[in-house]
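Please study the protein below:
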Amino acid sequence: VIAHPINVPTSEAVAAASRDIDALFVGCASEIKRVDILIAAAHAAKLSLVVVGSGPKTPEWARYAETLGAAVAFPGPMFGHELSHMYLRAKRYISASVTDSWAVPIGEALAHGCAVAHFDNPNIREAWDGGVSCWWQTKDELIDWLRVPVTENPADHRQFVLDHGYDAASVGRALDAICQRACANHRKRTG
């Protein structure tokens, strides 16, 4: 039973997506989400980041982004069509949470055609059928992943989603080998 159904767009919406946001995070602004790591990584990769949601850490993260000179927007909470539109604008979805067990935003990002990278959280890997998305262990691994253009990134799910549909379980099974290969290639390059 899925407590929070995944917001799934039409194939037409995915095909027409503008993809003008470099990286996206969706979630509550709490300590365990570790958005400060995402801000630093996006800044180091010279990419913009949009953080959708709000909470007690939002003011601190906004000050941190400003101190770095990072291109980060904090539009606040979004739901429904507004949130779906934000996913459709994003090239990548990134997460640094160490405690999420299901991570609905990852499923939504995949369904909307975003490439996804999350912290090496075994709960998320298990929830997404053994590794639907690339995972990272260090901020430097995330920065390296962010620097690869999405069109050249083996973990870019957009065309796969357009070609094969939106069922999260089937996306997970089909992309498991591709994503794990991409992560293995990264580890080979970085030692």
